[in-house]
Batch of 3 targets.
Target 1
Amino acid sequence: MHALAFAPDDASAMPLLPVAPDGLDAALQALPPEQGAWARALGFKGNAGEVAVLPGEGGRIARALIGRGSPEARARTRFALGQGASKLPEGTWRLEGSLDEREAREAALGWLLETYRFTRYRDGNGPKARLVAPEGVEAERLEILARAEALTRDLINTPAADMGPAELEAAARGVAERFGAQIGVVTGDDLLDANFPMIHAVGRAAAPHRAPRLIDMTWGGEGPRLTLVGKGVCFDTGGLDIKPSASMLTMKKDMGGAANVLGLAQAIMGLGLPLRLRVLIPAVENAIGSDAFRPGDILRSRKGLTVEINNTDAEGRLVLADALALAAEGDAGLTVSFATLTGAARVAVGPDLAPFFTDDEGLAAALARGGRDWADPVWRLPFHQPYESMIEPGIADLDNAPAGGMAGAITAALFLRRFAPPRYCHFDIFAWSASHAPGRPKGGLMQGARALLAALPEALDS
């Protein structure tokens, strides 16, 4: 369990002064002369994340400087000040100087996220520099968000041998138990009796102990309704349309949508938000076997729509469709799906942005604001209706993988909308950091969740 907590405020906390390049001379002149000279001797320039530790009497640390970077650098580097967690010596630190509310919050959250380490398979000590929560930030909220992201990262980083459908179910049960949520699971051939045919079809070729399942968790007795749906493909071989080996290397992260949903659910429950929450996770392994579904098969969905399979590697939308159809059978309220769904989304916006689709203009605006305010960049893509014909093959109601390679993220989103409740938003996320970045070590990543959390008060009131 990750601590991810701020240090208690006490007199021993060492001052940490953020300095921008254009304020460098003034900042150094305000220091005792020997400390200013020391900073200059170190070559400190105030670049983003740059650190200079300054000596005091008796060999003790007097304070440290940390670079804010230029406005251009701050626009390019999230969580720059959070790098102090891994660059400063062990001890307790307190930010000084004048940071606006957003920058102080980003620095504090980035510091917590910078301390995350995935240690399931090797010992590893994280940074030992701790931060006193800056004045004016919601310390408890930031700690809850950091722990939610740690859960998400842990789930994604765990390889498929130890994170199959059963283990994902166990993780969901653990979250439910901690917060008193109700949970039910339909597994294996019972999915057919319960009318989840596409979840069953995608997962039926897996070994019996990795059988497909639908996880259904509920929490909260009053307030507006929020339904979260997460793609839980615990490993994706591509099925009979097998992926090349290079494309399979990161497929342990294909349950990143489910991991993001569980992390977000943990945050919502931890914050005690006044809403009625439902979490639906279709958990499967898209395996290759004698019982695998095939290209050319036509599957009947829970909603009754038929789907022609033109690529078994477009399986995520199939399992999500049955879960979304279940949500649409009742009062789902606002429904949001998270999925590592298409490579086309990465081509469109790259790995750092979380693209989302919604017809709700108010929700779209609130998500954009939430992304900016909480260092969680998102970008709206359209449910472009003229492309509906691209997912209509003629032989069946829908095509799971339209030919041509154009607009793949949009056509996947349009496919899902055919099954979803009326008020619907879909995130097509990458859920992965390919290399180390401030606050985001290489590996699993939460994307879009903080933006949605910030948007909820406005979104659920409308």
Note: The first helix runs from residue 24 to 29.
Target 2
Amino acid sequence: MLVVSFILAAIGGYLLGSVPFGLVLVRAAGLGDIRQIGSGNIGATNVLRTGRKDLALATLLLDALKAGIALVLARWIAGAAGVPETTAYQIGLVAGAAAFIGHCYPVWLGFKGGKGIATFFGVLFAGPWPLGVIAGVTWLAVATIWRYSSLGSLCAALVAPIAAAVAGFGWEEVAFTGVLGLLIFWRHRSNIMRLRAGTEPRIGDKKEEPPVATAPPATEPSTET
């Protein structure tokens, strides 16, 4: 029965995590398919490229909440079914990790989803929340100093499992944050290439407008013979 509980938690978490809120919200607002805008990503950063900050914020919150809800709900159901607290917590972590994977690789969109940062923070704050605080402070510090959102995300993903190991968390949290951190690095491989090349856009950078072509000045017709 425990094996079945873990499997059901993984399936339920994946299905919840695979709900593409960015795509749904942008379409509902009549702005078309988010996959045809900007980077084509379904996450909050690309939703912001539509010019709708409210939609980007809603996408950010919903992407975080779906992972957190998956963890909390699976843990609560397992506990209500009489599963020991430690095992129920592990079942919750599995559901949260599955929600993260569902966000990055949603079956509904041909397994092409977001990069997982909002979902990562959501599942951390719903589970081992001190690691969520550490990762959040890391992201904020790096993003403030260097103004690279992607670099902040990568550093947060790197720091979380290290902090879990150093602070004496259990093997569950170390493995949990380690696996999700590796997936975040994999999903950000194009950002890593741009960071190395110095072409990654910074927070607050404005997109350069193409130069406006002007017609050459008109010339008077020649009267010379």
Note: The chain has two domains: 1-115, 128-203.
Target 3
Amino acid sequence: MTYAGDDDGTVDPGEVVWTWVPYEEDHSQGKDRPVLVIGREGPWLIALQLTSQDHDRDAAQERRAGRLWVDIGTGPWDGRGRPSEVRVNRLIRIDPRAVRREGAVLPRPTYEAVVTAVRAAHRRG
């Protein structure tokens, strides 16, 4: 997980892109959504799903359900300018050819905070 975000047309860690993401409970279904690319694993991109839903209000319930979120603020990935959160304890493998479009480059300090939260979430198991 090394930051490489820039707007060069190649998908790199630190960038928010749009792609199809399977639902956790049924991988045969899903939806097109923004994700934050945090790294690579061989030919795959490793990403985290974004949401504009505010999970701060139900953080205890989300933790009990096994979902951990980190606020990343606003960005051009959301046309309505809503603040976003990224789920740090569900890694998603994405075929780079499945990326529909680039949404934005996340500021490096925000990316580093997310990666720190990902590492902490995965140490907990």
Note: The longest helix spans residues 108-124.
